[in-house]
Fold this protein.
Amino acid sequence: MAATDSAAAGAEYRLPPPAAQAERLIELGVHEIAGLAAEEVRAFAGKAGPRDDVLLAVHPDRAPASALAPLLRRDGKPGFVVTDMQDADDFLPSGIVLPDAPLYFVTGVDRGDHLANWSPEEALPALTKADRTPLALTEGIHWVLQQPAVLERNRCFMTIGSRLRKANGALDTRTPAIWISNGTGRDGRERRNAPKVGWCWWGNRHTWLGFASTTGREI
């Protein structure tokens, strides 16, 4: 990545202050989904001060992907979960540990553009080697809620920190991702350019999907 590209990426990932993020979640009604008082969210956000490197997240047990996805907006169109992923809320944290708290911070988020055209199977060891862990699906949605511009045409991302475990104990080969609908197929033309929660196969590569990750999580 060229120096100018690195500078642009750094600016791209500077998040709003946690206090502003709290107000955004309250405005969207996420606190009500999670069964939290608005003041609880504000007080928790205040613990982080004016940092620009932390993402305020609600634990998926309190605010699942199916409830958060419709709150996404792009070109005035609401986000949605693809029709063949109606089990989105069953994609639970896998290989990552979320804080045992209704609210927490995700630090150092990165879209993982350098891993575009890698398969999830290839990307996970690379993230681990770099001391990073993949984002959970709900964390990725929170990121786009706070920073809609992070979802770009040809530069979207997977959230392979969430996986679905089958009844026999094996992991489902679908891996969740967040991208922009082309309005084709079952999405419907009216959803063109809308934010989309979907999935890709564990062994497949996509030139337009990076792998979102974090340096850590804290409360």
